[in-house]
Amino acid sequence: MDMVEEAARKIETMEVRGASRIARFAAETLMNYALTIRGDFDAKMKKAAERLLNTRPTAVSLFNAINFVMRYEGKTEEEKRESLVRRAKEFIEWVDTAKQKIGEIGARRIKKNSVVMTHCNSSAAIAVIKRAFDEGKIEEVYATESRPRFQGHLTAKELSEYGIKVNLIVDSAVRYFIEDVDYVVVGADTITANGALINKIGTSMIALAAKEARVPFIVAAETYKFSPKTLLGELVVIEERSAEEVAGEEIRSLKNVRIRNPAFDATPRGYIDLIVTEIGAIPPEMAYVIIKERLGYAKIYDEEIVLSPNHFE
Is the model's pLDDT at 60 over the cut of 90? Predict the structure, then answer.
């Protein structure tokens, strides 16, 4: 389990960050771990899956990745291993191809000479921005710092190295600059059955400002970020991280100060103009259809919701 424990640590400490990257990393970890197992295959794989699943409770892509890979079949240990490896590779291919398609589809919704605002560090949102820039549509980008982990610095660096002019701003400056923006493009950690967006803390603030300023708010999200669990009424768990990410010891030690550090917030579907997925651009109201028809689910093993193996059909 050393391999799995190390992978879990990297996810928990955000050495591996971003919903898509986490999902892909989890699938790779399960695949590589399966190749090392000799004996008690099912029990060891279940323990590994549970350890990874508990690292980031909000990211449904992690849940979907693990459940997809763990629906392996076979009677012998070798058959089970081959099935799991095959499913892991299939999921990894899904991750790798989805981003390119999202970039192509999303760029079509961006007009020429546009200014775009983005938040945090979403590979899907960046794919849209880069593709639109390649097509001569992006003038410049406003990227929030995305405190307290400053993932926006990664976005600014990546876009700058790509040749795009970037304005790096503090999160609280969003309302000040929103009038200068033509589109907001963000990623997603989870899309719920009613079309709401769970994403990096501060996203809902940006969506509210965009709504007031009549700036289109676009979400770039792979279909494996839609949550089957919410179809049955389960609420998305909002992860609250350590106070150490927010303040130093001098502030943390104050007697009457409690530091709160939620990692995500919820943006109502009414603030979302469009969700761009690898199978097309949809209104948020179609989230239910994606979950039912694209992802499909079945109840197995103590009524755990899992992805259907025919999701590509």
Answer: no
Kindly list the domain boundaries of the chain, sorted by start residue. Answer: 2-99+295-307, 101-294
189 tagged catalytic: yes
Mean per-residue pLDDT over the chain, rounded: 91
Q: Is the pLDDT of residue 308 over 60?
A: no
pLDDT at site 295: 66
Q: What is the pLDDT of residue 229?
A: 81
Is position 120 annotated as part of the catalytic site? yes
Is pLDDT of 313 > 50? no
CATH number of 101-294: 3.40.50.10470
Number of residues in the chain: 313
Question: Does 56 carry a binding-site annotation?
Answer: yes
Mean pLDDT, residues 48-53 taken together:
93
Choose, from 120, 134, 265, 273, the residue flagged as catalytic. 120
pTM of the model: 0.82
**Which of 134, 189, 273, 302 is labelled catalytic?**
189
- Written out in words, the top-level CATH class of the domain with range 2-99+295-307 is mainly alpha
Asked if the domains 2-99+295-307 and 101-294 are classified in one and the same CATH topology, the answer is: no
Q: What is the mean pLDDT of residues 208-224?
A: 97
Is 252 annotated in a binding site? The answer is: no
* pLDDT at residue 297, rounded to an integer: 54
